[in-house]
Amino acid sequence: MENRNEVREFLASRRAKVTPEQAGVPLQGGQRRVPGLRRGEVAMLAGVSSEYYTRLERGNLGGVSDTVLDAVANALQLDEAERDHLFDLARIAGRPTRRSPKQSMPKTVRPVVQRLLDAMTGAPALVRNARLDILAANALGYALYSEVVVNPVRPAA
After folding, report:
1. What's the total number of domains in the chain?
2. Does residue 18 form part of some domain?
C-alpha cells in the first residue's frame, strides 16, 4: 500500500477544511483541538463507526465500498475532482496483489455450480477463471465453444 500517506494527508486535510457549522454538527463544549471536523464527526456524518473511519484515514482503503466512499465524500463536502481523487486512491489501495506460485487457478467448479449451469437450457452459459480458462459450461455453452474446449490455445513456453 504505497499510497497510505497520501490517503492520510488527503482525508485529514479535507476534514480540516470543513467546520462543524458547515457540516451542521452541533458544537459540544468549548475549545476544539482540531481546526475542522473531528474523526468521530466525519464518521457520524458518513454513517460509519469512528473506528472504521479512523482506519480509512490511516490509509487502509483496500476493499472499501463505493457506498462508503460516497458517504465519506459527502461528509467531507468534496468537490467532483476531490471525489474522483478519493476513488482513485481507493482503487490503488484495493489493487489485487499478484498470486504467489503456490496459489493456483481453480481448474474445476463445485458440483452445485455445474448443476446450475446444466439447468440453464435456453442459452449458452459458462464459468471461467481469472485467466479466462473455461472451467465448466452447459450443453449449449460446450457446443458454442467446442473448438476452444477441444483445442485450447496454450501460450508458447
Report:
1. 2
2. yes
